[in-house]
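Hi U.,

Before I forget, here's the chain from the pilot set. I'm dumping it here mostly so it's searchable later in email.
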Amino acid sequence: MYLDMCFPREIEAAKENNTPVVIVGGTVEYHGPQCSYGCDTLVAQGLVERLAQKKDIIIAPSISYSPASYAVGGETSGTVHVEENAFEQYVYYVFMSMLSAGLRNIYVVIHHQYEQESLMPMTLCYMKAAKRATMAYLEKTRGQGWWGSEAYQDYYANLETSDNPFGWIKVIPTMNTAVQNATGYDHAGKYECSILMALYPEAVRPERLGERAHWFTKSAAEANKELGEEMVRLALEYLERTIL
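Structure:
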């Protein structure tokens, strides 16, 4: 189910059933001559859409304009980079709106710059905005001093349950460290092109590799759909266990 196509009845059901609401945190970023600019968004989006065939989730609109950075290609490369402070403030309001609507099971799924689950600027923007929004919402709805009040004396006992407000918004990778180690992970090379081939084959053009030479795209010549499908399988197993 897509959030864009929901009506109030579906949102009320999602709140009642604690249905996961999943946001793809993507980019518009240069990925060499053979890979589309939407690669990071498409990998996460394709996995989330396949996950929706296995379990009941609501897919929120993807967020593509983001802090992609100019680390791979400069300003003229076609990459769209949104400065971190501006982006964090933007997603803060997205989260505040969702919390105010009563949604309590929100996930952001990211493929960009998540090697070995490292915390890079874009991921940190989502994480910081999530905690800021949660704190602001709690103070707005429960008042100042809410945590120290006697009503929350069971706070620590509830940390591992859905009653923990700081678990309402989770930021996770498309592939955790174990999945990355089992298959491989790179930028616009053998592995990223393979998983993109499996999800959106039209977004990879191997015949264009010779148009521009980059060290990070050399291995893309070895990309294949079979490897990509294995990466998809393992990533989906992880996502199915994680998005609850």
